[in-house]
Amino acid sequence: MKSIILASTSPYRQSLLKKLGLPFLASPPNIDESPVLNESAQALVLRLSHAKAAALTEQYAQHLIIGSDQVCVIDGKIVGKPHTFENAFKQLKAASGHKITFYTGLCLLDSATGKFNLQCELFDVYFRNLTDQEITNYLYKEEPFQCAGSFKSEGLGITLFDRLEGRDPNTLIGLPIILLLDMLRQHDVNPLLG
C-alpha cells in the first residue's frame, strides 16, 4: 500500500483523516491560494485542491497525496476564513436566516503515475435568524476565525443552524471523508481491509 500524504497543516483535516486509522503524514503545500478573477467557487476549490496535492509530488514521489480546499458562498459571494472578529461577525450576520453553500474540493493524486481524481462536494447550511448578541457570544466562546463561514459545526456552531443538507457532515469540517474513501478504494486502500 502506498503511503498517504495530506497536503495540509489544518488540524481539522488531520483530525478527520485520523478517524480512518490509516497512517499518513501531513505536509504544508505552500501554494498561492488567491482566487483568479471571475473564478467560480467550484473552479476555485478544484484548482486549489489539485495545486496543493501537485505541490508535494517531488517531495513525495511514490505516494497518494490528498489535497483539499473549501470556501462558502453567501448571497452569491465567495467567502473564506474571516481571520478577525469583525469579519466573522459580518459573515454570520450575512448568513443569518439564509442558506449558505460550502464547496469543498478534493484531489487524490498518485505521485508515481501523475494520475489524479478531482471532485467537488457541496453542502448546504440553513441558518436560524440570529440576534447580534447570539453572534457576538458565539464568536467569543468558539473563536472560529480560521474557519470558512465563521463557525465550527463540530462544536457550538451547531446552535446557529436550522438544518443541514449534504452527503457527508465531515465535508463541513473540511474533508469529505465518504468521497475520499471512494477515491482511496480505487487505489486498493480500505481501512476495513487493511
Describe the structure.
The chain has 194 residues and is an alpha/beta fold. The protein contains six helices and seven strands. It has helices at 11-18, 41-54, 85-95, 132-142, 170-173, 177-185; strands spanning 3-6, 24-26, 63-74, 77-79, 99-110, 116-127, 161-166. Helix 3 packs across helix 4 (132-142). The model has no long low-confidence stretch (mean pLDDT 95).
Low-confidence stretches: none
Helix content: 25-40%
The overall strand count is 7
State the distance separating the first and last CA atoms: 9 Å
Q: H/E series, N to C?
A: EHEHEEHEEHEHH
Backbone CA Rg: 17 Å
Q: Pairing-aware structural class of the strands and helices?
A: alpha/beta
Strand portion, in percent? 25-35%
Count of helical stretches = 6
Largest sheet: 7 strands, mixed
Mean pLDDT: 95
Spatial shape: globular
Which features does this protein show?
single chain, 194 residues, alpha/beta, 7-stranded mixed sheet, 29% helix, globular
Write the layout of secondary structure elements.
Layout: E1 3-6, H1 11-18, E2 24-26, H2 41-54, E3 63-74, E4 77-79, H3 85-95, E5 99-110, E6 116-127, H4 132-142, E7 161-166, H5 170-173, H6 177-185
Produce a short descriptive summary:
By secondary structure, this protein is an alpha/beta fold. Helix content is 29%, strand content 27%.
